[in-house]
Amino acid sequence: MDSASPTATQLKKSEDPKAARQSLTITDNRTGKNYEVPITNDTIRAMDLRQIKVDPTDFGMMSYDPAFNNTASCISKVTFIDGDAGILRYRGYPIEDLAEKSTYLETAYLLLNGELPTEAQLKDWTYHVTHHTFIHESIKKFLDGFHYDAHPMGMLISTIAALSTYYHDAKDIFSPESRKKQTYRLIGKMPTIAAFSYRHSLGMPFVYPDNDLSYPGNFLNMLFRTTETRYRPNPTLEHALDILFILHADHEQNCSANTIRGVGSSHVDPYSATAAAIAALYGPLHGGANEEVLRMLMEIGSVQKVPDFIKRVKTGEVKLMGFGHRVYKNYDPRAKIIKVAADKVMQKMKQPDPLLDIAKALEEAALSDPYFVERKLYPNVDFYSGITLKAMGFPVSMFTVLFAVARTVGWISQWSEMIEDPQQKIGRPRQLYTGVTHRDYVEMDQRK
Ligand code: ACO
Hints:
By secondary structure, this protein is mainly α. It is built from 18 helices and five strands.
C-alpha cells in the first residue's frame, strides 16, 4: 500500500453503511459557526482553514507546525515509510529485497523512473552514468584551493554548487531531456568529487575514474588506489558498499529532501539545489550522526562503561547518537541490514572491532531501559553504518560524504517529482508574528 492509498481503518469506515461523509466539521467557539472541510487520504488541506474567521477583516485560521511534525508538504510516489511497523519501500519494493537482490545503479533507476529497468534500460543507464564520471580539469584547481585540513563535506557542498557554473543548460529545469542530462552528471560526478575531496585532505594525487569498474568499485578505486597499475576492489567491500548505497538512496521527506524541494521550488538549477541538500545532510542531527556515533563509541571506550553512559543520556547530559528518529518508532529496517553487513565485513576482513561490541552492548542496554522504551527510541541507520565504514577503511570524515553520494539519487527523484507536480509552488511558509506591532523610530540621542 502506498502513502496515497487509504489505510485499513479508513476502508473499514467507508464500508460501514452508517459511516459519515469524508469530511471534518469544525465549530469555531468564538463565533459559534460550523465549517465543513473535506478529508482526502486522512488529511485536510491547511488552506481550508483560512475560511475560519472572526470577522471579514480577519486573516483567517492557520495551522502551526514547527518542524513539520504533522504536515504533509507534498504528494509523493517515490518512497514509503511506515514508522510504527519499521517498513521502508522504494516505489513499493521492500528495502530488504533491494539490499539482497538489487544493485545501487538498478535501485537508482527504480527511484528515478518508478520501475525496475529491463536489461537494455539498465545497460543504457549504466553507460550514461559511467560516461559522466569525469570532471572538468579546472575543478581540480578549485579543490586544490581548499585548506589541507578542510572537511570533505565542506568541499563537496562547495564543489557541487560550483558545477552550476559549468553547465548552463542546467537552468532549463522544465526540459525532461535537460533534467536527464544533469541527473547523469550528478550521479556520475558525485563519487569523483567526493573521492577527490578525500585525496586532497591526505595530500595525495587524485585518481581518475576507471570506467571498467562497478559504481562502488570505482569509488573505492578513486579513494584508495596507491601504486597499483590496475586497482581491483575487494569484492566483499565492493558488495558491502553497494548495499550501504542502496540503504541510503532515499528516505522520503527527511531534512535534506525537504531542503532540495524547498530550494528547488525557487526554480534554481539542480546543482545549487543539491548543494543545499548536502549542507542539510551535514548536520549532526541528520547525516552527520554517523560521524558522531563513532566519536561517541570511542569516548565510551569499553563495554564496562556503557551503563554509566546510559545514565548520562537519561539525565539529558548527552544524546545517544544513532538512536531515535522522527518517523520510526520501531527498529529502523536499514539498521537491521547494516548490523548484519557490519558483522560480515568484520569476519571477512578478519578485523574484529571492540567498537562493535560497545555498540551492541549500548543497543541491548537501551532497548531494555524504560527511558528508551517509553520514548520508542531504536537504533537508526547511522548507529551501525559508521562502524561498518570504519572496518572498510573509511576515515570518519568520509562517512557523511558517502551518505551524500548515495542520497543524490533520492534528492534528484524528489526534486524531479516536485518540478513536475502542478500543485507545487515556491515554498513559502507563514509565521506567527509575536513581536512588537508598531512603534515610532527612536532618535539616537533618545535611546537608553
Ligand atoms: N538520545 C536521548 N534521548 C533522545 C534521543 C537520543 N538520541 N532522541 C530523542 N530523544 C528523546 C528526546 O529528548 C525527547 O525526550 P522528552 O520527551 O523527554 O523531551 C524524546 O526522545 C522525543 O525526541 P524528539 O527530540 O522530540 O524527537 P525528534 O523527532 O524531534 O528528533 C532525532 C529525532 C533528531 C533523530 C533525535 O532522535 C536525535 O537527535 N537523535 C540523535 C541524532 C541521530 O541519530 N540522528 C540521525 C537520524 S537518522 C538520519 O537523519 C539519517
